[in-house]
Write a structure and sequence with these properties.
two-stranded antiparallel sheet, binds zinc ion
Length: about 160
Amino acid sequence: MRACQKCGAPAGPGDELCRFCGSPVYRQLTDEETEALVKVFLESQDKALKGLNGPRVWAAFAALVVLPFAAYFGSRALGAGWLVATSAVLFVIAACFAGVGGAVQVEQDLHFDRTVKGKIGEFLQENRLEKARFLLAAHKGMPPDSEVMKRLAKL
Ligand SMILES: [Zn+2]
């Protein structure tokens, strides 16, 4: 059943505009349709977030390759024994892994703020969806620990 989105008045099958208030008439999506639509949209955004390889991530990876060698030979050159040098290497590797993880997070946060937020706005407008309905469908369709949902929760 078609109804005016603004005043709620019923509309005929061929009506483009509401006969009462003149607003455009759109068919309201069912809950199932909304959920399916939101799920497809968010899955593609989540995929984009997971596939991010920004310059910060590459820099952190490069550090992971180079710095352990530097730590080993550096500490040997300073007169450290192999045990101390090896400890330095392990420490540096742990720090680099934390750095890579942090860099990925930063890239994802940036992408979410710069791109995904805008796309959500467009998506809501295109599908004439209210934010509350969108969020409800999102929570039903997406795992809560997905990258896009973690950030959506902070909106
Ligand atoms: Zn109306």
